[in-house]
Design a protein that fits this description.
Elements (H helix, E strand, L loop, with lengths): L30 H6 L29 E8 L8 E8 L6 E11 L1 H8 L14 E9 L11 E5 L9 E5 L4 E2 L6 H21 L7 E4 L5 H12 L3 E6 L2 H9 L4 E4 L5 H8 L5 E6 L6 H7 E9 L12 H5 L4 E3 L3 H4 L3 H17 L6 E6 L3 H9 L6 E5 L6
Parallel strand pairs: 8-9, 8-11, 9-10, 11-12, 12-13, 14-15
Antiparallel strand pairs: 1-2, 3-4, 3-6, 3-15, 4-5, 5-7
């Protein structure tokens, strides 16, 4: 489908807004973030005072429940276990808000929970870790959120595959007016993943050489663009010519089609035998050992997914041969505090707004067709970001 028109931000002036004003550079932490983080109140009934510039409007809480459509999983398995059902949703309690979702991000972590690779907290459960919507009600005593706010969340609690949901107010972030809901829903979780991988797990800088597996995927595309903007030499692996063309557009200096050539040998040739400083590997079992072989001395192996299966155990002496570093990070541990969440989301939105990140919303499905979306994602028929649209959203 090509690059969504929502993502055509490069080279175009966008008006400033409260959330994104005051940027000092395009791929560092923006100056406006400092203002977001001035007040570090620990009061559980408050979001940061930044959000309280206008009087709070509250929907009247009632005891009535509303039926909404959701995707539910009653048993683990393939895409066919995703059921389209009616559930009751009540009113938000203290510290909570009710959100009518406009766009829902599809991520590979949703597949992991559906299959049981990751264990869901309850059974049955509603999958989904990322959504953008409009606040329709706020809980008693809550300040800082109002009916009509456009907000996004990425991470816990799970349950985004729903027309409406109840969320803790402290997990949502404001969506800048310059970024439309579909675009925000396609980039927040993937963008914050790219942010912590590139800026915190291993801090990529000019002169580094990085290897990105699944370079045309949702996270991979953002990693390539961002690493390129940081001055790194980017090597990407993909499965076919079409995805290779996209990876080049997204900033890959070298693209390896792993079905046609051995990526380990290709990396050695590209780096004149030195290897790369860091590997970002979301594929897992099929690429893990080769990824280790691609690293230079004191290189960093960052495994953040296992689309092909869980990697085999690594004996410690295998790392000692080149003094390698190995980490298996998760976004949840890098956005544990409200400050970390706002800083990460703010940096992502700032980079989208400035054009450093071009988000490819290549695939859109009605929420009711989540099973087909999962099947296409697992069979590698998708590239870029995939978005699910509830009734009332725009396809």
């Amino acid at each position: 489908m090509g690059v969504s028109r929502l993502a055509q931000v490069r080279g175009r002036h966008l008006p400033q807004n409260t959330f994104l004003s005051g940027r000092c550079h395009s791929h560092g932490t923006s100056a406006f973030l400092s203002r977001l983080l001035i007040n570090k109140s620990n009061q559980k009934d408050q979001v940061l005072p930044f959000f309280t510039t206008r009087p709070v409007v509250r929907a009247l809480a009632t005891q009535a429940s509303t039926m909404v459509k959701v995707i539910r999983v009653h048993e683990l398995g393939g895409p066919e276990v995703l059921r389209w059902e009616d559930v009751e949703i009540g009113e938000p309690k203290e510290g909570e808000i009710r959100v009518k979702n406009k766009a829902i991000g599809l991520n590979f972590i949703d597949v992991y929970f559906r299959k049981g690779v990751y264990k869901a907290p309850t059974m049955p459960f509603t999958p989904g870790m990322e959504a953008v919507g409009v606040v329709t009600a706020v809980g008693p005593g809550l300040t800082g959120r109002k009916v009509g706010d456009v907000v996004a969340y990425a991470g816990r609690p799970m349950g985004a595959y729903s027309e409406e949901q109840i969320l803790p107010a402290n997990v949502v972030v404001p969506v800048p007016p310059s970024i439309e809901p579909m675009l925000a829903a396609s980039v927040l979780l993937k963008g914050m993943t790219a942010q912590f991988l590139l800026r915190r797990c291993f801090k990529v800088e000019s002169g580094h050489t990085v290897l990105v597996h699944a370079a045309a995927g949702g996270v991979g595309s953002l990693l390539c663009q961002w690493a390129n903007a940081l001055g790194a030499t980017v090597i990407g692996t993909v499965s076919n010519e079409e995805k290779a063309a996209q990876a080049k557009e997204d900033g890959c200096h070298h693209v390896i089609i792993y079905n046609k050539e051995d990526f380990v040998e290709a990396v050695k040739n590209i780096t004149s035998g030195e290897g790369v400083h860091v590997v970002y590997d979301s594929v897992g079992k099929d690429t893990f050992q080769g990824s280790l072989a691609c690293l230079r001395t004191r290189g960093y192996m960052v495994n953040f997914g296992q689309s092909s299966g869980i990697p085999d155990p690594v004996p410690l002496p295998a790392l000692g041969a080149k003094s390698l570093f190995l980490t298996r990070p998760s976004l949840m541990q890098y956005t544990e505090t409200r400050d970390e969440l706002l800083k990460s989301a703010g940096e992502v939105f700032a980079n989208v707004d400035s054009g450093v990140l071009r988000v490819r919303v290549n695939h859109k499905y009605p929420l009711a067709q989540a099973a087909q979306a999962h099947a296409d994602l697992e069979s590698r028929k998708t590239s870029g970001s995939v978005v699910l649209i509830p009734d009332g959203g725009e396809l």
